[in-house]
Write a structure and sequence with these properties.
Late embryogenesis abundant protein 6, LEA_1
Length: about 120
């Protein structure tokens, strides 16, 4: 079921890409017809190429999104995956804050050396 939905979504995205490319080519023809210099014609051609590249990029992004949706649906169906909680690394309410980072409540910098056995930096006591 999900494979069919993904294929239909991909086909729709490919159709949109094709339409966008045809539109870019038509716009190029109009701009070239109105162009008076060789540079203006070159600019019209480069605009077309950029629009074609953008349409292809959007197609690949859509295909990746469809594959991710299929995978998420498959994992949800099997009861795996779920939401993963990644604790914040800086200022994270006591969750294993790395030593040597700014303390969010005071704005001071925590020491970057182990707190036992090493002298403080710059001869401070």
């Amino acid at each position: 079921m999900h494979s069919a939905k993904e294929k239909v979504s991909n086909a729709t995205a490919a159709g949109k890409e094709h339409v966008d490319i045809l539109k870019a080519k038509a716009e190029e023809k109009v701009e070239k017809a109105a162009a008076r210099t060789k540079e203006e014609k070159t600019i019209a051609e480069e605009k077309r190429k950029a629009k074609e590249a953008e349409a292809k990029m959007e197609l690949h992004q859509a295909k990746a999104r469809h594959a991710a949706e299929k995978l998420h649906a498959k994992q949800a169906h099997l009861g795996i995956g779920g939401h993963h909680h990644i604790p914040p690394t800086v200022g994270g309410q006591g969750h294993h804050d790395p030593v040597g980072t700014t303390i969010p409540t005071t704005g001071t910098v925590a020491p970057a050396y182990p707190l036992g056995g090493y002298p403080p930096p710059h001869g401070h006591i």
